[in-house]
Amino acid sequence: MTLATEVRKLTDTKPFYAVAGAGDYAVEKLRELPEQLQKLQSRRAELSKELPEKARAYAGKAEGIAKELPEWAREYAGKAEGIAKELPEKAREYADQLGHRAVEVYEEFAVRGRKVVSKTSGEAALELEEMSEAAEPAAAATTAPAKTAKTAKKPGATKAKA
Questions:
Q1: What is the mean pLDDT of residues 77-85?
Q2: Lower CB count within 10 Å: N or C terminus of the chain?
Q3: What is the pTM of this model?
């Protein structure tokens, strides 16, 4: 098979489009980073002013939690056996949900990738068309005199005798 056939075969697959969609999504998120970074830097100044006050408040809460911890430990020790029995079923449910979500994301990336590839392919085709149109007049001008200059007989053509 030719290289073009192999490339065409590859680019007509869902994994190809999913990768293109994931790449497009990554680019979109990377373009958002400078704005998010700016927001975080402006918020840093606010937080640095509030930090000592919040630290004192959390220290007070931590003391209260430390006093209640032994009681919570006894309470949860009694519930541990029931939680352990439910764990395998909950893990299966979570794995199923995760599997379904992974399929959804894969499909979304494939659709997004197909749009990106068709848009890019369309732009590339338009660009090639514009380039060929721009080149046509120049090519026609150089070949036109050559056609008029040649008036040779076609090979094998003979005059009919009367």
A1: 85
A2: C
A3: 0.57
